[in-house]
Every structure is written in C-alpha cells, then in structure tokens.
Specification:
Blueprint (H helix, E strand, L loop, with lengths): L5 E4 L2 H4 L9 E3 L4 E6 L7 H4 L2 E6 L5 E8 L4 E6 L7 E8 L11 E7 L6 H4 L3 E3 L6 E3 L4 E2 L1 E4 L4 H4 L2 H14 L3 E5 L36 H16 L3 E5 L19 H15 L5 E8 L6 H11 L6 E5 L32 E5 L9 H8 L5 E6 L5 H4 L5 H12 L5 E3 L27 H5 L2 H13 L8 E2 L10 E3 L3 E6 L4 E3 L8 E5 L6 E6 L4 E3 L6 E6 L1
Parallel strand pairs: 2-8, 12-13, 12-19, 13-14, 14-15, 15-16, 16-17, 17-18
Antiparallel strand pairs: 1-3, 3-6, 4-5, 4-7, 5-6, 7-8, 9-10, 10-11, 20-21, 21-22, 22-27, 23-26, 24-25, 24-27
Helix pairs in contact: 5-6, 5-13, 7-8, 11-13
Pfam family, one: Apiosidase
Protein name: DUF4038 domain-containing protein
Organism: Maribacter arenosus
C-alpha cells in the first residue's frame, strides 16, 4: 500500500505506562492518534487543505474530529473513545478529494476500560452541568476550576520547567492553567529561544506582519510535550488562541486586529490538536469579547467539537464604566461582561477586577444574575506582587478567591502572580512596566504565599459535588452562602462570627475548616440552624449529608 497509515496512542503512555497486548484496543478517554500521509504536494498545507475523521461505534454513535497538519506530508487525527466496550470504525475525509492519502482512509479499533490513576482521564472530558453554573466530567463528577495563569508557558518554558511548575501546582490544589497559546505581540522582539532572556519561540513566522498563516510546526510539537506534562499532573489546559487587550508586553497585540478567517482556522487547529484531551476554550481574552473571529470561533467550536468542552470569554477590567487607562476609547468598556450572552455556543463568562488590589465583587455578582445562565468566575484578580511586588500579597489572595466564589463565581477561582504570568527568566529581566512586574523570576514567583491559599480551595472542595450549586445569601440573613439544596451548604466568613441558615434538612453534619491551612477545626452533627465560628479569623463552614 502506497500510503502509510499509523495508529498510535498518545495519552495512553502518559497515564497508562504499560504497553497493550492488543495494539488495536485503546482505553476509554485516552487519545488514539491516526497519522495520514498525503499523496499530493501543497504550497502551504496549513491553509490549503482541511481534513477530518468520522468515527462510529456499534451503537451508532457518530463523532467527527478535525485533523491537523503536523509537518511535511503528515496530517493527524486525535480521537478519544467515549465508551469502554465498543468497536469503532473511522473514515478520513479531505477538502481535496483527489488526495487519496488524506481522503477515504479507513480503520477499526476497540475501546476498553481505562485502568490508570489519572482522574482527568478516568472521569472523562469536561462539559457544562445541566444548570450551566459550573463544569463537570462526563462521569458526572463535578469540576470546580481552580486555575492559575502561567500565560507565557507555551512560548517561554521548557519541559523541565513545566514539570516543576505542574508538580508545585498539583500539590497545592490547582487543576487548571490559563495559557496564551502563542506570543501575541506583533512588536515583541528577542531571540527565537525558550528559557532565554528576552527570548520567545515563534508559532508563526508571519505574526509580526499581522498574520498567522506561516506555521512553525515544531513549535506545536514541543507544545504537545508541555500539554502532556500538565495533564500528567491532572491540570487542565485553558487555551486562549491569540490574545486581545494587553498581551504579553503590551506591544500591539494581534488579536484585536486579526483576520477573522485566520483566527477561526487557528482555533480549529487547536481543537484538532488538543481537543481529544481535557480542555477549556477561552476564545476571547482581556478585551470586550467582540474582536475579529471570536463569534465565528464560538460557532465553529459548537459545530466541530464533538465533546462540547467548555467555551467562554475573559473580559478586561471594565464593565459599565470608562476606565482611565482606556484613554477615551469606548470600545474597551461598556461591555457589562456579557457579550454574546444569548449565544448557544457560549458556556461561561469571566470578569477581571484589575490589578489595584481592590476586592471588587459586584462584577461577578451581576454576571451571576444575567440571563440566560452562563457559568461565572473572576478570571483575573490582582496578581500577587503586581506594582513592583507591593499588591495583593499573601492572604489577600485567599480572601479574594473565597469571596468571589461566594458572590456567584461558582465556576471556580483563578490566581495569578507577577513574574510568573510573563514567565520571567531572571528576576531583573526587562520589558515590563512596574505596575505589572516584580523583581522575581518565574520560579521565585511560583512559591509566593498567596498561591497556597487559593490552591487550598481545590483541596477543600475536591470531593464535594458542587454541580449547579447556587448563591443563596437569602437563607443566611444576607451572609455568604452557597447551596445545593438538601445536600451541600458552603459558607465563608472572613471575620468569623455567627451564621443562621433557614430550612436545613435533617441528618447533616457540619465542619469548620481553617482556609489558611485546610484543616478541620470542629466536626459535628447538625442539631440547630445556628453556627458559630471557632474565632474571629477567616473560616469555611461545610454542611454535608
């Protein structure tokens, strides 16, 4: 046969170290990788040809996955079986039907149970809950996002560095990492190297010219290895295609002026390359949500993402006012954190409160009430150490995260640190204004105290079913309270005190937890509706069945 067909298992070896006796059997939710070889030559394979695969099992389930170009004459399709005891057949399709290497290829494999220990894989990919308040796995297990913002990992970090980063964040309780999938500033300059002062790897050779058509495939092949490490450590990548708003150094970010077709093509490429693994799609970053290609990318994901993993928008610090830094440009503001609220493809809305170390809860609170319901979080609080190491230090981060959660940010919490988000190579690396910087390298910022407090939210809530939990301060005389009726009650009291909760069911237990350590202080059976914190410090109250 002239065309070389190769079927491999990508994630199998990440989470399932032993080889399979039967190479045609692959575990549920692991990624099966199919390689296709074109029989024709293309001047620019990335832009000229579309390839996809159709997968059908014995029950008649049919899933379609886009393919991606992986250099030279190679295209790959990555697919994760949704079951554990079915025979799957697949057929490839190409926009160029004359290319017999890409069009009309077929194959068969069988899905088997997953027996590894990675909870991201064992519980399946991500989707929204029925009530749209938060995220869950396909298994039904809820997933409270506890995110960090190592935005520059894809273009600055090495495998060794990401391994150290992911190990630290998993140990602390984080389960998601927000990333700019490429360096977005058209005017940024420096060596084309990772882990180099002023340097960054280029994903596209023509980005500095305002386009993303000339792909450097080796960039994404290396990015594969970084994604692998994150998922090994049970950290879900949050993919932002081409950033809007500030960007990396604020040097004329491409996302706000990009060709819409190029933006959609690239978003689809990311879907093809990474969409068979746990993922969250952040298709608008740090602006008003209305940049070129955003709406079209949302519609594309609705059509092409057969797993329907979460899709959303992250806004700039404005909502219903004109910020001073906007210099009179009204397009930055007055978006009210609700662009495309009515769109079916939109799953979540993320606010941003700016970097002035102010506890601003009104944005999330308003977003929670918007209709139709979309999951809500504060996607960017003040990063720890902003403004030359002064802002939002230590426990400030813990209080901010818990209170944003209590105000309706039920999708989860997000943390950030100056120097870490830029992935600074040395403490004195230049290129950022003081308001966004501090004299630390990425690994120095990795160990700032505030990250531990935010990560503990992940540990405290890890085994709780928070699916569609609601803000119900009305049941607690106006004090912070999240409720999943008759099953789960969560309150955060930043200064201790008492809590009276109406209508509690019988047979519940209470636990007071210190949010600074994650340790329980008092545990008991609920006998009344009044609860008094152990002291005047910050406390979390959990009521569970």
């Amino acid at each position: 046969m002239k065309n070389l067909l190769i079927i491999t298992v990508l994630m199998l070896y990440w989470v399932y170290p032993s080889c399979q006796e039967n190479p045609d059997e692959f575990p549920q939710w692991s990624t099966v990788e199919i390689s296709l070889s074109s029989t024709m030559e293309y001047a620019n394979p990335y832009t000229e040809v579309e390839v996809w695969g159709a997968f059908t099992n014995q029950k008649g389930d049919s899933l379609i996955r886009p393919a991606f170009w992986d250099g030279e004459n190679t295209w790959k399709i990555r697919f994760a079986p949704i079951d554990d005891d079915q025979t799957w057949t697949w057929t490839s399709f190409s926009s160029n039907t004359s290319d017999s290497g890409l069009n009309g290829q077929t194959g068969t494999f069988r899905s088997i149970p997953y027996s590894g220990s990675n909870t991201l894989i064992s519980n399946g990919l991500l989707k929204m809950t029925k009530g749209h308040r938060n995220v869950r796995h396909y298994s039904g297990k809820s997933f409270l996002v506890v995110g960090d913002t190592p935005w520059a990992i894809p273009f600055r970090a090495t495998e060794e560095q990401v391994n150290a980063y992911a190990n630290d964040r998993q140990q602390k309780g984080f389960n998601a990492a927000l990333m700019m999938t490429l360096q977005p500033d058209t005017k940024a300059e420096g060596p084309n190297e990772r882990n180099t002062v002023l340097g960054f790897k280029r994903a596209f050779a023509d980005l500095s010219d305002g386009h993303i058509n000339k792909m450097n495939v080796d960039y994404f092949q290396y990015y594969d290895s970084l994604v692998k490490i994150l998922i090994d450590y049970e950290i879900v990548p949050v993919y932002q295609p081409v950033f809007h708003g500030f960007g990396w150094k604020g040097l004329q970010v491409l996302g706000s002026n990009i060709n819409p077709q190029e933006y959609v093509r690239y978003t689809k490429y990311l879907l093809a390359r990474y969409g068979s693994m746990p993922a969250i799609w952040l298709i608008a970053g740090d602006h008003n949500g209305k940049d070129p290609g955003v709406k079209e990318s949302g519609e594309m994901l609705q059509k092409w993402d057969c797993y329907q993993q979460p899709v959303g928008i992250h806004y700039n610090p404005c909502d219903d006012y004109l910020a001073s830094w906007a210099s009179g440009d009204r397009s930055h503001c007055f978006h009210n954190n609700k662009s495309y609220q009515d769109e079916e493809w939109l799953d979540f809305q993320w606010a941003q409160t700016g970097h002035d170390a102010k506890h601003l809860y009104h944005k999330v609170e308003r977003m929670y009430d918007n209709q139709p319901i979309k999951a809500v979080a504060n996607g960017e609080p003040t990063y720890e150490g902003m403004d030359n190491g002064q802002n939002a230090l230590g426990w400030w981060q813990g209080e901010e995260a818990w209170m944003q959660l209590m105000h309706g940010g039920t999708m989860g919490v997000v943390y950030g640190a100056a120097s870490l988000w830029q992935w600074k190579i040395t403490p004195d690396e230049k290129g950022w204004e003081a308001w966004t910087d501090q004299p630390l390298s990425w690994d120095g910022a990795l160990h700032l105290e505030g990250s531990s407090f935010v990560g503990l939210i992940g540990k405290i809530t890890k085994n709780l079913d928070i699916s569609d939990i609601e803000k119900r301060w009305d049941l607690a005389e106006g004090k912070p309270l999240l409720v999943k009726e008759d099953q789960l009650y969560i309150s955060f009291l930043k200064n201790g005190g008492e809590l009276n909760i109406k209508g509690l069911p019988k047979n519940m237990k209470y636990t007071w937890i210190d949010p600074k350590t994650g340790l329980p202080k008092q545990i008991g059976k609920v006998t009344k509706n009044n609860f008094k914190a152990p002291n005047n410090g910050p406390w979390v109250l959990l009521l569970t069945k």
